[in-house]
Amino acid sequence: MITQKMKYALKALLVLGDEAGKPEPVALTIEEIARRSGTPKRFLEHILLEVRNAGVIASTRGRSGGYSLIKKPVEVSISELLRLIDGPIAPLPCLSRRAYQRCEDCTDEASCRIRKVFAEVFWSYLVIIESLTLEDMLRSDRVAEQVLGG
Questions:
Q1: Which of 50, 84, 54, 48 is nearest to 66 (CA)?
Q2: Which of 92, 108, 140, 143 is the least buried, fewest Cβ under 10 Å from its Cβ?
Q3: Backbone dihedral region for residue 25 (phi beyond 0: left; psi -120 to 50: alpha; all else: beta)
Q4: Is 57 within a domain?
C-alpha cells in the first residue's frame, strides 16, 4: 500500500501537471495546491520540499511565487516518486535493488521459497510501476473526463 503522504504527493503533482498543461501556466501557492487537491496544507509543505529537492518541481518566491512543475509529466517516474516519498518498494529487503539487505532469518536466498514467490509477483508489479509516469496519470484523468462528459 502507498502511504497517505504518497497520495498527497501524487495529488499535488496532478494539480501542478494540470496547471502546466494550460496555455499560460502560473506558479501555484501551497494554499492553492491544497485547495485544488483536497490535501491538508500542513502536510504539503514538507512533501513539496522533498519533491523540489528531487528536481521535479521548482519554487519561486515573491508576489507571483509558488510551485510549478519543471519536469515534463512524461519524465516524472511514479516508481522514483514512490521510492523518494515512501522508501523501498520491494516486499522483502532481499528483493530490493536499491536497499538490498539479506533477511536475518534466511540461510540460503537461492532456495528460499518465500523469496521465490514474492520475486515473481514483485517483478510483474515492477514492470508496470516502472513504466508509469505522471503523464499516464494525467492522461487517464483526461480520458475519464471525456468519457464521463466532465
A1: 48
A2: 108
A3: beta
A4: yes
Domain of 13, CATH number, reads 1.10.10.10
Domain that holds residue 29: 1-76
Rounded CA gap, 40 and 101, in Å? Answer: 35
- Tens of pLDDT, residue by residue over 73-113, are 999 999 999 999 999 988 888 888 888 888 888 888 888 98
Strands 66-69 and 57-60: antiparallel
Give me the DSSP letters along the chain.
---HHHHHHHHHHHHHHHHHTSSS---B-HHHHHHHHT--HHHHHHHHHHHHHTTSEEEE-STT-EEEE-S-GGG-BHHHHHHHHH----SSGGG-SSS----TT-S-GGG-HHHHHHHHHHHHHHHHHHH-BHHHHHHHHHHHHHHHT-
Q: What is the pLDDT of residues 4-29, one digit of tens each?
A: 999 999 999 999 999 999 999 999 99
